[in-house]
Amino acid sequence: MPSPLTFSSQYLPGVTVIAVAGEVDITTAHLLDDYISRTRRHQGDHVVLDLSEVPYLGVSALHVLLHAHDVAYSNGASLHVAALQRGPAHLLSEIEGRLNVHESLEQAIRAALQAAAQPFPVGGGVS
Predict the structure, then answer these.
(1) What is the phi/psi pair of residue 88, to 5°?
(2) 9: part of which helix (H) or strand (E)?
(3) Crossing angle of helices 59-74/29-39, nearest 10°?
(4) Residue 82 β-bridge partners
């Protein structure tokens, strides 16, 4: 039986860091989507997803990640995915280039903080 999906978050200037633990599949992907939407303090916040404790990502999780990326991008922000295990990393290789994927959480946070410090929206933002 898969472990339940759990979340925790922390806030940095202009960045929301979300740690996810458990399997993200067709039955739990909506929970991740809801948590990302509820947890961001501001629409323009960059989002870092720490997936180091996620052993499995299903195709439905890809839809959630792409949606979170699109929402962030449309608000002048970015999504950073960090610390993927081997299985999820293989799945994300299918959409390589669409997401900001980092080997470590530290790299992802550093990139998001640098993006948050930029005076102009990263990704085009809404006029």
Answers:
(1) -60, -35
(2) strand 6-12
(3) 20
(4) 50, 102
Asked if residue 102 lies in contact with residue 79, where contact means CB atoms within 8 angstroms, the answer is no
The 10 Å Cβ neighbour count of residue 4 is 10
- CB contact at 8 A, 82 and 49: yes
- The closest alpha carbon to 76, from 109, 97, 46, belongs to 46
Per-residue pLDDT of 21-53, as tens digits, reads 999 999 999 999 999 999 987 888 999 999 999
Q: At 104, list the tokens.
A: 């470590």
Q: Quick one: pLDDT band at residue 3, thresholds 50, 70, 90? A: low
What are 26's strand-pairing partners? none
Distance CA 108, CA 105 (A): 5
Tell me the fold of 6-117.
Answer: Transcription Regulator spoIIAA (3.30.750)
DSSP tag of 103: S
Q: What gap in Å lies between CA 104 and CA 111, rounded to an integer?
A: 11
